[in-house]
Amino acid sequence: MSKIEVKDLTKIFGKKTSKASQLLSQGKSKTAILKETGATIGVNRASFSVEEGEIFVIMGLSGSGKSTLVRLLNRLIEPTSGEIWLDGEDLSKMDKKTLRTVRRRSMSMVFQSFGLFPNRTILRNVEYGLEVQKIPKNERAQKAADALELVGLAGYGEQYPAQLSGGMQQRVGLARALANNPDILLMDEAFSALDPLNRKDMQDQLIDLQDKMQKTIIFITHDLDEALRIGDHIMIMRDGSVVQIGTPEEILSHPANQYVEKFIEDVDRSKVYTASNVMIRPEIVHFEKDGPRVALQRMREAGTSSIFVVKKGRELMGIIHATDVSRLIKEQVTSLESIIDANVPTTELDTPLTEIMDQMSTTTIPMAVTENGKLRGIIIRGSVLAALSGNEVNLND
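^ that's the sequence the OP posted. Answer follows.
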């Protein structure tokens, strides 16, 4: 079961919501509905699910509906229609008392503005949500101190917000959200106000925290590079509607339409793609049954001057070259063992393309992609260049 399940969630701002809803069901555009009714479509029948323990990024340009949507999830904004299921319970139908309990215990929100109290120490800022819940003083102080340690601010508890940098203040905001140990973090443009260096530091901090805590995080951003860097899944919105949902690789490899294509055209793919995205099917011979003549024939068919050798189960042994194979044939040697070069550059499936590019610059032979010692594919310079240009190579082609 998904942690959060959203079904046909809609928000219409204005007085003529019934008329606007009718026009929406007829397929009228946001602009046409505004012109005819004066009502604004904030979110248009959004449906998606968020798995437990993932970072789900919602992104889009200004006016796309992403910030409205995140506030619908905890009902800071009341939906016009649709369903919001949290752990199998319909949050959209909860009474105010139950909803307050869910907000306090299950969800925390981190905003773009730090929202710190200037007259409170850092520790007391982090304690604030626990104080509202009337948690005993000693207990909330300990939880706040633990949260500050999580975000790398141990020892700063007695300082005041004005004494901290912008990046450190945002860490305090994150610590305040974590102090209550919520299941779900809602983060609305949480890093947008930071300079690029602090922003990257906070992205790293969030990724590190997620490795430790495995929270369910819904992260709002307008920055595609940020979305691709931290997101397990990304949902792109436009004019209140969901345009595409997918993993970072799926978004880059298979954009749903021209809008998404335009969105991703300037992305540095080397920061997102991994070895699994650029590897191609390798030509191989099997050590136990194939000899020099079979190896040479396969190289001729493939138009290559080398070929990889594997054991049973595709365990990588190394690579052999045509000149050495020809020599064995002349010498009437039937085993490939003496010419196998085990010094093959290798990488793992999830190695970032940036690292692969550095390795490829120092080798003259294809790079082997392995998983538990088994050959899964190879990388050649051409496949790397194709991926960087947006023309990915499919291993199964």
